[in-house]
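Notes from hallway chat w/ T.B., transcribed later so I don't forget. T.B. wanted the structure written out for a chain they're using in a teaching module, and asked if we could keep both sequence and structure tokens in one place. Agreed to drop them here.
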Amino acid sequence: MSEFNKHIDQESLWGELYEPLKPKINSGGGLRLVLMLSCNCGDNVLHHLFLFEQKYPGLLNIVGVATDDPVDPNARISLKKRIWSQYSPSERIELKNKIINSCMDIGIPCYTGAVKTDYFRSMYKIWNPDILIMFCFGQKLDSFLFDTPVMGAYNLHPSDLPKKIGAGTQPFQNAIRNGLKTSPLVIHGITELIDMGPIVGVSSQVNICLKDGTYPKSLLTLLDKITSIGPWMTIELIDELMKQRLKGDIWPLDWIDFEGKLPEEIKELLRSPATDDLNEKYTVPPHPLLLK
């Protein structure tokens, strides 16, 4: 476990605030980004965005992270309905600590408590985000949280929202119940209606079936496959927002044509059959901006 200070406050309702003993030193300026995420897919996005920040000093500044607490019995994160139900108690602890450790290694604060509280709102005001990105986060946000970032608040959701399938806590179950053979990863604006905000971009379709056309036994393999495109899409989102800001357009993004932008090799990977092997991981090549 990385070195940190841990603060517990009754106003947070559950969870803690972890602050690194060695805070990240930002090289100056840049779009201020807050992340609300959990699980391996969230940790993967966090690391790719930090690589972007390091590679392009002064363009991006990750200022804080809020994550799920799947351990505290008081936490209201739809534990039994969401993907957390597929993990054992020890795996939940491991995944929670993974996000916290990543934040401490990077040097940014990580909060695991309730976000619709005065305690967190005060913290959020200090973080003062230009952008909010949410991925696999278990709390519903209020208007203060999603309206504060002047360049938008965005959620990544693994279901076919354009077909009005999969909104809510069980996207994979909904896809299977509707007999879908493919399902994309969608980026949409955050509103008070869960997963109902304006769609900003849609990935290429992702094959969610095995070679024989049946579905995997474990939903975790679908989580891993559909969300594997998340880091690529978030880097593209940040790049488009930066281009928009250079034009003087300081407001949320309307649309990204991910289908047109994704390389064919990634589309081919997404079209490949799913697997039942939890040890087999889907690795999408990094966004070109991370390779320059």
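Follow-up for T.B.: The longest strand covers residues 31-37. Might be a good example for the class.
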